[in-house]
């Protein structure tokens, strides 16, 4: 009888331990393990961070980071043949698609701010930017006040659009703010004269200028309105998955691979057209690499 009780106790403890191990995976890793699929949110037109090269081929600085995270997931779950599903997302739908379980991870140009932290989680920061303006060189626009009574474009659902609307209300600038569906459409509106200025993150504006038909016609102006931190977006309160993601990013910063990635995407010709963003690493980025963190920069 005593032997049977001991055996039963041993089986029960093993079952509890197994359940605890399953629980330790957290919702995202458990979902990936159960389905055999990891779903990534990808951007169609956000070079040099995450963009489409044609067909199903994605590229970019943030995208390369996401592929490193996928490799870590494969190792942790011992699933070398894990299927990777990529779904195109926009500034408007990326948060809802993460919250409803359609995607598991999004590494693009998503700003970590206190408002978004109420809905989703963020990894260790992968990039720090400043929000500025792209305008025609002969436009006469040098700073934010010069936008008075002009059409100004920003990506719909982006922090840039929200900041523009707040600025417009507070400073009574009389701007007509246009929400573009993506970066490409925003620049097209600027190029075609439908907007006098395009507000976005400085690195994105440098990329748009570099890929323009006549880059010399365009200039980036205005003192940065905000500093913002990009993070990979994941489900809120998923400690296990966040730990895995953070470890990958922090390791890339400590082993020097993030510097190589930066040079690849910001200081060299990039596919498919071979333009060079030519965006030297900022002091903020160098500080981040020396001290990785997941701090939201609401400034």
UniProtKB/TrEMBL annotation:
Pfam families attached to this UniProt entry: SBP_bac_3 (PF00497)
UniProt-recorded name of the protein: Glutamate/aspartate import solute-binding protein
PROSITE patterns assigned: PROKAR_LIPOPROTEIN
GO annotations of cellular component type: extracellular region; outer membrane-bounded periplasmic space
Signal peptide start and end residues: 1-22
Membership in a protein family: Belongs to the bacterial solute-binding protein 3 family.
Keywords annotated in UniProt: Signal, Transport
GO BP, one annotated term: amino acid transport
PANTHER family cross-referenced by the UniProt entry: AMINO ACID ABC TRANSPORTER PERMEASE, GLUTAMATE_ASPARTATE IMPORT SOLUTE-BINDING PROTEIN
Residue ranges constituting the Solute-binding protein family 3/N-terminal domain according to the UniProt record: 37-269
């Amino acid at each position: 009888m005593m032997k049977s009780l001991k055996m039963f106790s041993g089986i029960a403890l093993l079952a509890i331990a197994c359940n605890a191990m399953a629980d330790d995976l957290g919702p995202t890793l458990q979902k990936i393990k159960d389905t055999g699929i990891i779903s990534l949110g990808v951007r169609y037109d956000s070079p040099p961070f995450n963009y489409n090269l044609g067909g199903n081929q994605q590229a970019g600085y943030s995208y390369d980071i996401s592929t490193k995270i996928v490799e870590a997931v494969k190792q942790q779950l011992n699933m070398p043949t894990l299927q990777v599903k990529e779904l195109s997302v926009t500034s408007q739908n990326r948060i809802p698609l993460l919250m409803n379980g359609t995607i598991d991870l999004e590494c693009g140009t998503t700003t970590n701010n206190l408002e978004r932290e109420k809905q989703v989680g963020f990894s260790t920061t992968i990039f720090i930017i400043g929000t500025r303006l792209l305008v025609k060189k002969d436009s006469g626009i040098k700073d934010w006040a010069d936008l008075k009574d002009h059409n100004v474009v920003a990506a719909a659902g982006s922090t840039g659009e929200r900041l523009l609307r707040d600025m417009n209300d507070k400073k009574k600038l009389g701007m007509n703010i246009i929400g573009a569906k993506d970066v490409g459409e925003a620049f097209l509106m600027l190029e075609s004269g439908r907007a006098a200025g395009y507000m976005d993150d400085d690195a994105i504006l440098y990329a748009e200028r570099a890929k323009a038909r006549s880059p010399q016609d365009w200039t980036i102006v205005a003192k940065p309105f905000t500093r913002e931190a990009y993070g990979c977006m994941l489900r809120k309160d998923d400690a296990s998955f966040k730990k895995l993601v953070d470890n990958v990013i922090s390791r890339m910063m400590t082993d020097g691979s993030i510097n190589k990635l930066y040079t690849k995407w910001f200081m060299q010709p990039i596919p498919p057209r071979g333009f060079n963003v030519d965006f030297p690493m900022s002091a903020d980025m160098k500080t981040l690499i020396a001290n990785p963190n997941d701090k939201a920069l609401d400034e």
